Every structure is written in C-alpha cells, then in structure tokens.
Amino acid sequence: EPEVTQTPSHQVTQMGQEVILRCVPISNHLYFYWYRQILGQKVEFLVSFYNNEISEKSEIFDDQFSVERPDGSNFTLKIRSTKLEDSAMYFCASRGPGQPLSGANVLTFGAGSRLTVL
Amino acid sequence: AQKITQTQPGMFVQEKEAVTLDCTYDTSDPSYGLFWYKQPSSGEMIFLIYQGSYDQQNATEGRYSLNFQKARKSANLVISASQLGDSAMYFCAMRENTDKLIFGTGTRLQVFP
What's the pLDDT score for residue B12? Predict the structure, then answer.
C-alpha cells in the first residue's frame, strides 16, 4: 500500500538552530500538508501546499516556518530558528486530486518526525 | 467554541466487546466531512473511516462503523469485537469547505483481555 515517508523519525536540536524535516508524499498525490502534535495534545494544522504554493496556513505557521517542494518527490518543512515550544511530533500528509470533501479523498499521514528542542 | 469535542479522555473495553467513542462537532457549513484516525503508541496516524455530511447511510469499514446523527451533530465511532491491538488514541476530525482537518483532543482506548 502506498505510504507517506518522513525523515528523520527523531531529531534533537539546540534552541536557535535550523531544522529541516523531510517528507516523500504518495507519488500521484497533489496536495501536501504539515500538521503538528505537541506531546499529549491534539493534532494541529500548520500548512497546506498545492501547485507549488501555500494554499492555506494557520496562525502557528509564522515567519519561522517555510515549506518547499524542491523536486518532484520531496516536500520539506523548515524551521529557521527553533524554540523550545517547537518541540512536537510533525506529521506530513498528502491526498490525491479532486475536491477535499470527497469520500475517496482522505489524507494519508506519515509516521511523523519527533522534534526535540533543548 | 470547540469545533470537535471528544468528551471521553479514556475508555476501557474488554476484548471481543463493542465500544463507542463519542464525537460531537460544530459547524454551520452544509458540506463537511468527518473522519476518525487511530494513533497507536508508535505515533503514526492511521485513517479508519469517513462520513460525508450528505451521505445517507452510516459509514462502515470492517469492524468500524460511524454512528452519524446529523441533527445532534454527533459522529460516534463504534468498534465491534474489540481486539488487544485496538488499544490506541482515537481522534475525530472534521473538514469543512476548506482543505484542513480540525482534530479533537482524542480518546485513549484500552482493550483488556
């Protein structure tokens, strides 16, 4: 079954350092997302990306965050200068073409990248 | 106001029994979708079941069914014949006419022998 692949599975970094989280979405998917989950809390939307541009972003997704699709397969989330409160599990997700409100158009999530900021 | 409310922080069920995980939602959009995801201790998010707001019948996927009561704005997940491997966090989520999922706070289900 096709899957979304995320690397690294766990990254530890010092406050103020830049971090890049990588994702390989399902190959025929066109819509890409990042969500995050602070430990013990609910999953929160960060950003959606389609046709090489951000289509929607949340209040969390401030100037410290950026996303990029550098080639035909990877989708990255960059945090420019990490803060302690950025410690969380970051999930990449993707879905196929078509309208979002369709039974067939379910988001497939990756296994997550756990970021720990010290 | 919370868009998705899961009032049960934790639930216990005996193996082979059925269990219902509650979810209520709040939206004024006529078009929306409701989802349930499972998150085992390993952390990944696994899609379980989807219900569209215009779907006439309750969604079913194997041992999972969604008890959709539109007037009450509830979308409870029913797991029949629970298995030990069902022990996990379960998240209800909604997508309105945008392209983002809004999640509830989750219910931790523990299945005991």
Answer: 97
Please answer yes or no on whether B43 and A111 come within 8 Å at the CB atom: yes
Residues 6+ apart with CB under 8 A from B62: none
Would you call A56 and B99 a contact, using CB atoms and an 8 Å cutoff? yes
pLDDT score of A101: 59
List own/partner pairs for B58-63 with CB under 8 A and 24 or more apart: none
* HSE-CB for B98 with a 13 A CA cutoff: 14
Binning chain B into helix, strand and coil, the percentages to the nearest 5 are 5, 50, 50
Confirm if B32 and B96 have CB atoms less than 8 A apart: yes
Do B103 and A43 count as a contact with CB atoms less than 8 A apart? yes
* A100, closest residue in chain B (CA to CA): B99
Measured CA to CA, the distance from residue B2 to residue A44 in angstroms comes to: 13
Q: What is the 3-state secondary structure (H, E, C) of A10-60?
A: EEEECCCCCEEEEEECCCCCCEEEEEEECCCCCEEEEEEEECCEEEEECCC
Segments of chain B scoring below 70 in pLDDT = 1
Q: Do B101 and A109 touch (CB under 8 A)?
A: no
Residue pairs between chains A and B whose CB atoms are closer than 8 Å: 67
- Which residues share a beta bridge with B89? B39, B108
Q: Report how far residue A28's alpha carbon sits from residue A3's, in angstroms, rounded to the nearest whole number.
A: 11
